[in-house]
Amino acid sequence: MIQAGIVGGAGYTAGELIRILLNHPGVNINFIYSTSQAGKPVAHIHQDLLGETNLEFSDKINKDADVVFLCLGHGNSIKFLEEHSFSETTKIIDLSTDFRIKAEDNSFKYGLPEMNREEIKNARFIANPGCFATAISLAILPLAGAGLLEDEVHINAVTGSTGAGTSLSETTHFSWRDNNFSAYKAFEHQHLAEITQSVNQLQKSFTSALNFIPNRGNFSRGIHCTAYTVFSGSLEEASALYNYYYKGAAFTFVVEKDLHLKQVVNTNKCLVRLQKFGNKLLITTILDNLLKGASGQAVQNMNLMFGLNETEGLKLKANYF
């Protein structure tokens, strides 16, 4: 039984991790670290877990845990690992931005299974991708993998309010978010760096712009992404390319019908749809930002790292109605 620890246990991604791992047949939750909630029942914060667990938050870690998930705010994972040590066999999966961009002193592998499955299997440290980065990368990586990104890519994506985390701000209050819609960080969202890194891993020659407009939607969870770019081939050729790229993917599927978020919310799936308009290929992707965009993908990575079936504990059902 894998002994798992969660650091930063009070946030949305930690809540999803706890929910998944409680029902994972190969995992025991060893500790849930939260200095702000230490001693309180986990269900006091994650109220959907009432009656599901008697676990309590702790201000102590187990340095010998088999795997530790870091669910800390961006910039805090580096600091935490500087202040706390784990055994040489402990695997670490970080859900923040801290280790996603490769550097000489960065031993973390980028945890997008559709691109780096074999590296993930042999990794000790994983940088879990961002939610927007996952949706956008899965839209365009098949083109990059074939060297067929010929021009700029134009991207518009909408995320739910949980993407902003639990900390309150002007734009996360219900009274502001309800019946509202807004764009933010146009052309300079922090996930662009990791998306560009992934594209260049597959197509080093790509130097055109990724024009990304992120939007806030008035719903809780999910990402709906549309991306279009010049593509000289036919729709049939694009479909063959995408189906080949994702033929071994456990959770990413190419479909032919219109997409909507209820197909994927509360699941670890990403659905991809292709359409051709003149010389442009339109790619639409949808996923749950807290699952395939965060905690579900983290567990998917854990499964690969420990030699388990990639889908173990992740056969989650969408709440369609």
From TrEMBL:
GO MF entry, a single one: NADP+ binding
Q: Which Pfam families match?
A: Semialdhyde_dh (PF01118), Semialdhyde_dhC_1 (PF22698)
Semialdehyde dehydrogenase NAD-binding domain mapped to chain residues: 3-123
Top-level EC class, please? oxidoreductase
Q: Which UniProt keywords apply?
A: Amino-acid biosynthesis, Arginine biosynthesis, Cytoplasm, NADP, Oxidoreductase
| Listed GO CC annotations | cytoplasm
Q: Subcellular localization, per the record? A: Cytoplasm
Q: What is its EC number?
A: 1.2.1.38
| UniProt key word Ribosomal protein | no
**What domain of life is recorded for the organism?**
Bacteria
Per its UniProt record, what InterPro entries does this chain match?
AGPR, AGPR_AS, AGPR_dimerisation_dom, AGPR_type-1, NAD(P)-bd_dom_sf, Semialdehyde_DH_NAD-bd
Catalyses:
N-acetyl-L-glutamate 5-semialdehyde + phosphate + NADP(+) = N-acetyl-L-glutamyl 5-phosphate + NADPH + H(+)
Q: Decide whether keyword NADP is in the record.
A: yes
> Which SUPFAM superfamilies does UniProt cross-reference here?
Glyceraldehyde-3-phosphate dehydrogenase-like, C-terminal domain, NAD(P)-binding Rossmann-fold domains
**Pathway it works in:** Amino-acid biosynthesis; L-arginine biosynthesis; N(2)-acetyl-L-ornithine from L-glutamate: step 3/4
Q: Name one GO biological process term.
A: L-arginine biosynthetic process
Q: Which residues form the active site?
A: 131
HAMAP family noted in UniProt? ArgC_type1
Q: What does this protein do?
A: Catalyzes the NADPH-dependent reduction of N-acetyl-5-glutamyl phosphate to yield N-acetyl-L-glutamate 5-semialdehyde.
The UniProt entry's sequence similarity note says:
Belongs to the NAGSA dehydrogenase family. Type 1 subfamily.
What's this protein's name?
N-acetyl-gamma-glutamyl-phosphate reductase
This protein's species is Antarcticibacterium arcticum
